[in-house]
């Protein structure tokens, strides 16, 4: 064991010596490894950061959450012209499912109000606010965190009372740092009382932020917009009870809605049941494909780096032929010489890899500063992958030069070195 530690130490010294004595040659050789590792880890870090952002955005809703609407989250075999004829889900269907659907933990009716709205308090206006018009059960489906006040209750939701829950940024724009709960604002040109303010969430690159939203009772928005198709985008959001078989629940949901709409056996559904778990799987599939494409492209850079390491090792073997001959004449075994050059190749490659990782780290810090709340993450796993890959490249690149060095005849090596 001690002999290998000594070999490792000597190989490290030889590697450092090569860096010092042949700076330009070593720099050019290691540049390929540095660029290759930078490319691979940058791709992995970027995809991981995007996935983390998307997952964090979706984490407010449980993966078991189901959204029923006339649109589909993903691709569909149903022709577009036919999908465009699907009717919107209705408030009455929400009420029917709420009463008849078993194993239901929570269900909410929601309207997507297009274009946002302007909220006004005295002479201050917050324009372009994303409005979520929902029933009171939505609070039990999504993980809301309120900083002040409360969410609207069932009587307020059913009556369409003029109450509103504001996102953190909207409340700050309207009221500054003061408490907005209890104050009266105007939304859709109508009066509404602020009953709650959500905690600051931060910006999401993929799905936006709750900070710029406001929630009102669905029936409050229905009085303003009505139910004209294309004006609002109704949806029914459901959450099954824990432990319920998801496939059975979806089948029951589809059957109940088919019965209410009078869809005959053999006819296709004129609605879509979108599952967040399926959407999460879709995101995993996309990020997986991005990883593969990025790794293939980055692999070419790493291949060039491998050739650079192999080149510098062949040159190193040639320069130290005389020393190899002396070592073997003094009793050094082939595996000692082999290990010596392999360690050197690995150490040189890891140095290049560490430089690549350091550049990724710097880039991630700078990029995070320019993208607001979106954070680029260089995870410990990616650091481990980068180090392992660079060591592997050094091992593969150095194996042939190391074998050629270990098989040198001591007499010929000394003679050639002279």
Written description of the protein model:
It is a single chain. With 418 residues, the chain is of the alpha+beta class. The chain folds into two domains: 2-57 and 282-417, no CATH class; 104-237, no CATH class. It is built from 14 helices and eleven strands. It has helices at residues 2-21, 23-58, 80-83, 91-100, 138-141, 154-159, 168-175, 218-225, 246-261, 276-319, 321-329, 334-370, 380-406, 410-417; strands spanning 66-69, 104-112, 117-121, 124-134, 146-149, 163-166, 184-187, 190-198, 213-217, 233-240, 272-275. The protein has a six-stranded mixed beta barrel. Helix 10 (276-319) packs across helix 12 and helix 10 runs parallel beside helix 13. It starts with a helix and ends with a helix. The model has no long low-confidence stretch (mean pLDDT 79). GO terms for molecular function: transmembrane transporter activity. Keywords: Cell membrane, Membrane, Transmembrane, Transmembrane helix. Residues 296-410 form the ABC3 transporter permease C-terminal domain. It is found in: Cell membrane. One of its GO terms (cellular component) is plasma membrane.
